[in-house]
Prior knowledge:
Elements: H1 8-36, H2 41-62, E1 70-71, H3 77-87, H4 92-108, H5 120-141, H6 155-161, H7 163-172, H8 177-196, H9 206-220, H10 252-279, H11 288-305, E2 311-312, H12 314-322, H13 329-344, H14 354-368, H15 371-380, H16 382-397, H17 400-418, E3 422-429, E4 434-443, H18 448-456, E5 463-474, H19 476-491, E6 495-498, H20 500-506
Amino acid sequence: MESLKAPLARTFGHDLFASIVVFLVALPLSMGIAIASGVPMEKAAPVGLVTAIVGGLVVGPLSGSPLQVSGPAAGLTVMVAAFIQKFGFEALGIIVAIGGSIQVLAGLFRLGPVFRAVSPALIQGMLAGIGVLIFASQFHVMVDDAPPGTGQEFGGVINLWFIPEAVFKGITVAEHRPAAIIGLLTITIVALWSVLAPKALRLVPAALLGVVAATAAAAIFDLDMRRVPVPESLLDAARAPSLADLDALRDIGVWLAGLSLAFVASAESLLTATAADSLQRHAERTRYSRELVAQGTGNILCGFLNVLPLTGVIVRTSANIMAGGRTRLSAFLHGAWMLLFVLLLPQLLSMIPIAALAAILVYTGVKLVKVDFATDLWRQDRIEALVFGVTFAGVVGFDLLTGILLGIGVSLARLVYTFSHLDIRVEKDEASRVAHVFLDGAATFIRLPRFAGVFEKIPAGYDAHIHLSGLTYIDHACLTMLMDWGENFEAAGGRLHLDWDVVHRLFEEKAWRPANAT
Length: 518
């Protein structure tokens, strides 16, 4: 395996090419995600791009996952939009800084691996719900219309309900038709390029190609539609929170928002890092706690600049790996190209139709809903499928945090069931005076009355065969009861057949073993 300490000459060419590919992938997505996150339209482009710059220049060199690329993420758009709506855009930086501080503390206390314990069904259910919400809101933006559910309770459901109206406007209303055409053109190019691109050109980002083609078409035919507003200086959008903004720290809701942001951003980043490990063999494996510190440091800076929160992003990370990235330098350089673009070519952004960026997010939202994952989960584990479904429904029907809490609730209920469920089956042969007891599940004190009652019904003088192959756990209370019953049973003339090696494996304590037990 080629380490990060490999000579620069051996890796620089790979990293340079990969950084350019990632830059081209990140450019349209960063702006589109900012728009979808509810950032004021006049600030959306610079806010998204500055977040991407921080992800490359700051998080890239610090990252515990060498080939992971960080930046604004589609998975946080719904949460950020809710924060902006509730607390105002000026308070976003405070919330992001709080979340980043929590991430740094979690990393310093080496809690990185803990976030890997989050159920994949919960994460995928969350992302699927987010995908539906992004699709529902950006579909309206794609026809140069405002999402009708914005600021309303059950806004995501409202946006979904009114999609047929958006389609009708795009077809029949002259004001919306140009944007609808550009949006449809963008999605068509992205979808076809993703499937039909020649192997030699597959690294050309589909999203960039779609936005460039849409921008060119809008300019050639002089279509009347909204375009990305660009301030005189893109970096003016980044500013430190004022003393007045710090008043938000008195609101407990702001602290809870920061905590929820830290949880979701950390889970998404570390799951992306795990995926990156599975995709590459060139760099060292992820150091999860270091990755948390890196992500937290980046988010503290993003909070100070009052821009979007960042996470590790699977689209950019996989593009980096597929383009041949070898070290952290590729992520750093992609941030450098982003900064140079912001400084030297900002006016190019003003030519981009907002409908094209919204179309990219409509396509991204659909891709976040992994139907194959859900169907496979249903075949393999119905309870985990329920976790997926409940989380998905909660995110779409209520909000992101409610969906996550509902999913965690179902996961905990499953855990309680697993550690309290015990199935006991008894087969007796009176002619040969043999009894077989089959245990399946967890023998805990919760099931002690039933556990004891079954053994006490085995007549004296029988050969008792206790089968433990289906037992996943036995606690001290049930083990003590089994030991006491075994002594009394053998004293009354019975014979106990029990694999005590299994008991020792399930309960790490030297248990009593009768002299004639087998």
